[in-house]
Amino acid sequence: MRSVAPPSPAAVSIGELSRRTGVNIETIRYYERIKMVPAPPRTASGRRVYGPAETRSLAFIRRSRELGFTLDEIRALLALSADDGENTCAEVRQLAAGHLADVRAKIADLRDMERVLANAVRGCDAGELPGCPLIDSLSAAAPLISSSTTIGARPHRTRSLPQVRTATPLGEIRKPTPMHKPPRRRG
Fold first, then answer.
1. Measured CA distances, 184 to 15, 76, 157 (Å)
2. How far apart are CA 58 and CA 77, in angstroms?
3. In 10 A of CB 30, how many CB atoms?
4. Burial code of 153-165, b = ≥16 C-beta within 10 A, e = fewer?
5. Which residues lie below 8 Å from residue 22, measured CB to CB, with a gap of 6+?
6. Separation of alpha carbons 23 and 28, rounded Å
7. What's 71-129 look like in SS3?
8. Model pTM?
9. Helical segments of 22-82, H only
10. The pLDDT of residue 179
């Protein structure tokens, strides 16, 4: 059974918590369901009540998500933030360094995408090839970019995979060895 909280001047409703942290109400409930944040106490009428600790935790999660950390990485960061051990900073640094490598790999993939698209647009502008080079490239059997890269989504971890170069009608792109992972659920 959930605890019943007495009214506190610092306690806020889920709507107010959402406004203060910039986290959607449904997302707050989702974080509670997956145990990213503990279930809050409730009033006698069943309303959730949140305090300063929940506000800090949700702001931490939101900022971490803005930086592209996964929910598992954030869960680890939250656990490390609660631990005042000697190695905490080193562990956080290691996790952040791994994430930084992922961000840099994504930037490299985006540069490859930009180059391929710029070549396609230049080919169309110059009228060098018969037909439409962009349509021809999009119709080609070989992918133009890595299958692990999706615009707007975080790529699968590829930093330890061997990279191969693939020639396309519009230029050469870097492509990691394929990985067979199910798509991640966004939280």
1. 28, 18, 12
2. 13
3. 15
4. ebbbbbeebeeee
5. 59, 62
6. 7
7. HHHHHHHHHHHHCCCCCHHHHHHHHHHHHHHHHHHHHHHHHHHHHHHHHHHHHHHHCCC
8. 0.63
9. 25-33, 52-66, 71-82
10. 39
Top-tier CATH class for 14-69: mainly alpha
CATH 1.10.1660.10 intervals, the chain: 14-69
Chain position carrying tokens 């490239």: 137
**Residue with token string 């959730």:** 48
Mean pLDDT in consecutive groups of 10 residues from the start of the chain, 187 residues:
56 94 95 93 91 93 95 94 82 94 95 87 73 75 57 44 46 45 51
Q: 176 in helix, strand or coil?
A: strand
- How far is 143 from 174, CA to CA, in rounded Å? 11
pLDDT digits (tens, 9 = 90+) for 112-125: 989 988 887 887 77
Residue with tokens 């562990």: 91
Using the structure block, give the residue that is written with the tokens 């956080």: 92
Q: What length does the chain have?
A: 187
Dihedral Cα 11, 15, 19, 24, nearest 10 deg: 130
Q: Would you state the pLDDT for residue 105? A: 95
What confidence score (pLDDT) does residue 178 get?
A: 41
| End-to-end CA, the chain | 26
Q: What is the model's pLDDT at position 176? A: 44
